[in-house]
Amino acid sequence: MTGQPQLADGRGAASLDDRQLLETQRAFDSVAADYDGPRGNNELIQRMRQTLWDTVHAELPVGSRLLDLGCGTGLDALEFVQRGYHVVATDWSPQMVERTRARAAAAGQEGHLVARHVGIQELDKLDGEFDGIYSNFGPLNCAPDLSKVAAECARLLRPGGSMVFSVIGRICPWEVGHYALRGRFRRAGIRAARGATAVGMNRHTIWTYYYLPREFYRPFAEHFSLHNYRALSLFMPPPYLVDYYRRKREWCERLGRLDDRFGALPVLRDMGDHFLIVMHRR
User: Fold this and answer.
1) Which member of 46, 51, 171, 207 has the lowest number of beta carbons within 10 Å of its beta carbon?
2) CA 122 vs CA 33, 64, 68, 79, 125: distances in Å
3) 12 phi-psi bin (left φ>0, alpha ψ -120 to 50, beta other)
4) For 223-251, how does the pLDDT look when each residue is reduced to its tens digit (9 = 90+)?
5) What is the pTM of this model?
6) Among positive and negative, which fits the CA dihedral 200, 181, 230, 243?
């Protein structure tokens, strides 16, 4: 397979990071064919997705050149192309990249949406200058070295450009309560772990790093100023509780309005299933 991590030494033994990256790649390859099924119909995911779309649109004028980190099947990339942007979409999963290319072709947008099989840890393979960089639903949580990512983003982003990232947070009250009430205390505290944490998906493993917003920002601080950040799915249930949302839709929509109103306030913005962070290139 092309694009796999380089071996760590001349003896041919891959590093721990390399092995974890490959396991994560295989996990996403395994679900690429039907990834849009339950996720595409999930109202809670769509609500979070819309927040990122609107934030990028507010940060960057139509016609800007955008870099998508961890594009998945290309839903976000196609949305931005249809809004008038030009997008280079990247992903570590070759199967996800193929889905993105197929989506661009079906929409007749190959000239505006280019998909590349490049992992977030491989941004040194990219050239050119971008007006904005975005990433949705936590691909950056799988990057083993955020300092390297920050340096490459600084190289690729024009001065004054914007980055908008949706990142899986460390403190999710809904998750703690949901699993603790079921006696699954180890699962309830999984986000408290430091370093790479094994998360199962489709009988594979995704190696995930969890962050508070300020922890996440620290490796970027040399090159980027922190513009703002806010909680996503703090009062509203996280996306994997969509069945609860559908049973209690009216109540959950009220909770969603609390997210909209209070999710950017100090203390509250440090919690939630994800957080949305906006940074500007110095």
Assistant:
1) 46
2) 24, 23, 13, 25, 6
3) left
4) 999 999 999 999 999 999 999 999 999 99
5) 0.94
6) positive
